[in-house]
Design a protein that fits this description.
By secondary structure, the chain is of the alpha/beta class. It has helices at 11-22, 84-99, 121-133, 154-165, 184-193, 215-226, 240-250, 255-265, 276-280, 287-299, 344-351, 364-376, 446-472, 478-487, and strands at 2-5, 26-31, 47-51, 69-72, 106-112, 139-145, 148-149, 168-172, 178-179, 182-183, 203-207, 213-214, 231-235, 333-340, 397-398, 401-407, 412-417, 423-432, 435-444. A hairpin with a 2-residue loop joins β15 and β16.
C-alpha cells in the first residue's frame, strides 16, 4: 500500500515509518521543512519526502493523489498562539479537504482520551479535530491514547527528571489524578496493525495500558525500576502557575510546555473498554515493564525520537530551518578562528559529540552558567542536552542550540541559538583546506543587542579559542600508549 504519514519528523511519526517499511508499504513523508527529514530514508526506494504545510493549502498540491492510507499525527502542545484551537481546526480541515480529492480509503488519527466533561484546551482541541476529519469519502479510524511511555517521550523524560533529581518531593495535588499509561511500542502496534483493517473503519477506540494508576504512582514505580527510594507529599496550595514553574525549574521541559501539561494533568484519563486489543491482537504491557524497556533503549543509545528535538521544546524556529541556513554577513558581529588539523576524522568525531554530557570541551562551567541565566529569564537553558551522544541531524536540539545543518561527509555543522538573546546567533564548524574554521555570528537587535555583544566579548577570547584548540588536538588512546610503551621495553 501507499501510505501518507503527516508529522513524519515527530515523536510517533519517526518511529512508525520504519515499521511501515518493514511491512512492505510505500511511505510518503510529509514535512514542513525538508531539512528536518531523516537522512536515513533519503536513499530508500519506497520512501518519498514531500514538503507541505497543512496551514497553507497552496502547498498541498505536492502530495500525490494515489494514496491508500493516511496518518494524521499532527498535534501541537504550544501555548504561544491565542488562536491555537482555530489553527488546529484549520489544519484538520485543510487535510480533510485535500484528502477528499485523492484516492485514500482510510485515515488513521492518533488522539487523546477525552471521556471527561471538563477537558483541557488541548484535549478539547483533539476532540474537535476528530469531528472535522470524519468524511463520506474515506473511513476514519481513531485511536485515543493517554500518557505515552517510551524513551524520549515528554512524559517519560519529565518523570525521569523528577525521580532522579528529587529524593523528597512536595508536589501539587494533581499528582493524585488517575491515568492509564500506555507503552509507545503498543501505540505503534495499534497504529500499524490498523492499516486496511475494515473492523476499525469509521470507529473510535480508547487505547490504554492494563493499570489505572495516579501520577504519584507513576513516579514511585519509576523509582522502583531505577532502584531509588523516593518520598512524595502532595499539597493543595500549588496553583497551576506555581505547578508549571515547579516542573519548569526541576525538569527539562520548557515553561510553555509545562503549563500545557499541568492543564492536561488535572483531567482524569481513563479509557472506555472495547475489543480493540482482540481485534488487532495487541496486549499492552504494564507501566513498570514499559519503563524498563525504555531504559534498555537509552542504555543502547538507540532512542529513535525525542520530544526534545521537537520545535515545541523552544518554539522559536517553528519548523522553518531553511530560513536560518544562510548565515547573514551584514550588520553582524563575528568571532572567526582557524586551526590546522592533524587528524580530520578525530576532529569531526569531537564536533559531532559536542554538548550534552560531553560538554563544550573548554570553559564548560561558563556554558552552564549561561544556561542557568537563560533559564532564570524563561529560556530553555542547557536542560535538553542531546538525544544521541554522537549522531546529529538537522532539527535536533543540542543544549540551547538547534542543529540547522549537519553533514559529516561535507564536514560542516551549523547551529542556531535558541537561548534568550537580544538578537540572533549562529555557531558554525567547517573543515576546509585541512583547517577547522569556527565562526560565531551574532546579528544584534537594537542597542541592547550591541551592548550584549560587547559585554560577552571578553569571554569569547578564551572560550572560543580554548574550544577550537581542544577540537583539533590529537588525543592518543591510552591503549595505544600502553602498546607503544611495551614495545620499547
Amino acid at each position: 500500500m501507499t501510505i501518507l504519514v503527516t508529522g513524519a519528523t515527530g515523536y510517533i511519526g519517526k518511529r512508525l515509518i520504519p515499521i511501515l517499511l518493514d511491512k512492505g508499504h510505500t511511505v510518503i513523508c510529509v514535512v514542513r521543512d525538508r531539512l528536518r527529514a531523516d537522512k536515513k530514508f533519503a536513499n530508500e526506494d519506497n520512501v518519498y519526502v514531500i514538503e507541505a504545510d497543512f496551514l497553507k493549502p497552496i502547498t498541498l498540491s505536492n502530495i500525490p493523489k494515489r494514496i491508500d492510507v493516511a496518518y494524521y499525527l499532527m498535534h501541537s502542545m504550544s501555548n504561544t498562539s491565542k488562536d491555537f484551537a482555530a489553527l488546529e481546526k484549520q489544519c484538520a480541515q485543510n487535510f480533510k479537504d485535500y484528502l477528499e480529492t485523492t484516492e485514500v480509503k482510510q485515515v488513521i488519527y492518533l488522539s487523546g482520551i477525552t471521556n471527561e466533561d471538563k477537558l483541557s484546551k488541548h484535549l478539547n482541541s483533539r476532540k474537535q479535530v476528530e469531528f472535522i476529519l470524519k468524511s463520506d469519502n474515506y473511513a476514519l479510524s481513531v485511536f485515543k491514547a493517554g500518557i505515552i511511555v517510551g524513551s524520549g517521550s515528554s512524559s517519560f523524560e519529565i518523570v525521569r527528571d523528577l525521580v532522579e533529581k528529587l529524593p523528597f518531593m512536595i508536589a501539587p495535588k494533581w499528582l493524585n489524578t488517575k491515568t492509564q499509561p500506555l507503552a509507545v511500542r503498543d501505540v505503534l502496534s495499534f497504529l500499524s496493525k490498523a492499516v486496511g483493517n475494515e473492523k476499525v473503519f469509521n470507529k473510535s477506540f480508547d487505547v490504554f495500558g492494563p493499570e489505572i494508576i495516579t501520577y504519584k504512582d507513576m513516579l514511585l514505580q519509576f523509582a522502583e525500576v531505577r532502584g531509588l527510594k523516593r518520598k512524595i507529599v502532595t499539597v493543595p496550595v500549588m496553583t497551576p502557575k506555581l505547578s508549571s514553574y515547579w516542573l519548569y525549574f526541576v525538569t527539562s521541559t520548557s515553561y510553555k510546555l509545562a503549563s500545557t501539561l499541568v492543564d492536561s494533568m488535572g483531567v482524569q484519563i481513563i479509557g472506555k473498554p472495547s475489543k480493540i486489543n482482540e481485534i488487532l491482537n495487541v496486549k499492552p504491557i504494564p507501566y513498570k515493564e514499559a519503563v524498563a524497556l525504555a531504559f534498555e533503549k537509552i542504555e543502547q543509545n538507540s532512542i529513535v525520537s525525542s520530544w526534545k528535538d521537537s520545535m515545541i521544546s523552544s518554539g522559536r524556529l517553528q519548523n522553518r530551518l531553511h530560513q536560518y541556513i544562510n548565515v547573514p554577513q551584514f550588520g553582524c558581529f563575528t568571532d572567526h578562528r582557524e586551526r590546522f588539523i592533524n587528524d580530520t576524522e578525530q576532529t569531526l568525531d569531537k564536533i559531532w559529540s559536542i554538548g550534552g554530557k560531553n560538554g563544550w570541551y573548554y570553559g564548560t562551567f561558563l556554558w552552564r552558567i549561561r544556561g542557568y541565566i537563560d533559564k532564570l529569564f524563561g529560556g530553555i537553558g542547557l536542560r535538553r542536552g542531546r538525544t544521541h551522544p554522537t549522531h546529529l541531524a538537522a532539527g535536533d536540539a543540542l543544549d540551547f542550540w538547534r542543529v540547522i545543518y549537519a553533514d559529516k561527509n561535507k564536514q560542516k555543522l551549523l547551529l542556531f541559538a535558541e537561548m534568550r538573546l537580544p538578537g540572533e546567533a549562529w555557531l558554525e564548524f567547517k573543515i576546509e583546506d585541512n583547517k577547522l574554521k569556527q565562526t560565531a555570528t551574532f546579528r544584534p537587535r537594537g542597542l541592547w543587542g550591541r551592548l550584549y555583544w560587547y559585554t560577552v566579548l571578553p569571554f569569547h577570547g578564551f572560550i572560543f579559542s580554548g574550544m577550537i584548540n581542544k577540537l583539533v588536538k590529537v588525543e592518543i588512546p591510552k591503549t595505544s600508549l600502553t602498546t607503544e610503551n611495551m614495545s620499547n621495553l
